[in-house]
Amino acid sequence: MTELAVTGSALTELAATELAVTESAAAIEIVAPCADWRRVLPAAAEIAGAAARAALRRGMTDSGIAPQTAIEIGVSLADDAEQQRLNRDWRGLDRPTNVLAFPAWEPGAPIPSGAPLLLGDVVLAFETVAREAQQQGKPLGDHLSHLVVHGVLHLFGHDHAGEAEAIAMESLETAILASLGVPDPYCRTM
What we know:
alpha/beta; Collagenase (Catalytic Domain); four-stranded mixed beta sheet; 8 helices; 15% strand; disordered N terminus
C-alpha cells in the first residue's frame, strides 16, 4: 500500500504534534477510479487523506492502539454505479449510498505482531455525495471530509443503529471535523 503524502492547505489544518501520532505508522491509500472527483474537486485525494488521518488519530487513541502501530486503510473515491454494486453485493440493498465501510479488523481483536493492522476500506460515491452537499448547502470538500471521517469511525467499530450510538458517533465526527476546520455537519441553521 502506498503512503499518501498530505500536502498543501490540508496539511496546514493539522498541527505537527497531532500528525506525530499517525504520520509514520499510518498508510492511507487513496484511489479515485471516478474521474469526476478530480474534475470537480481537484484536491479530493488530499482532503480525503487529511480526514482519514484525523479519524485514524482519534480512533487509535480511543481504541488503545499504540501510536507506533503500523495501520493501513484504503479510501476509494468511486461513483454511484460502483457503490450500488457494492451495496447490493455486500448489504443486499440495490441502490447507491454515500459511504460504505468494509472493516477488516474487529475492535478488541489482537493486533498482529510484526505486521500492519489492516483496518479496512472506505468507499464513497461521487454523484450521491455531490448531490447531498448541494442539497444541504455545504461545500463538497466539507461533505467529503465528513463522510471519510464517518467511514473510518465505522472501521473502528462505531455505529449509529441506536439513538445513543448515533449521538456518540455524531459527537466524535463533529470533534474530528472541528480539528480540520470543517463546521459541524449536524448543525441545522435555517
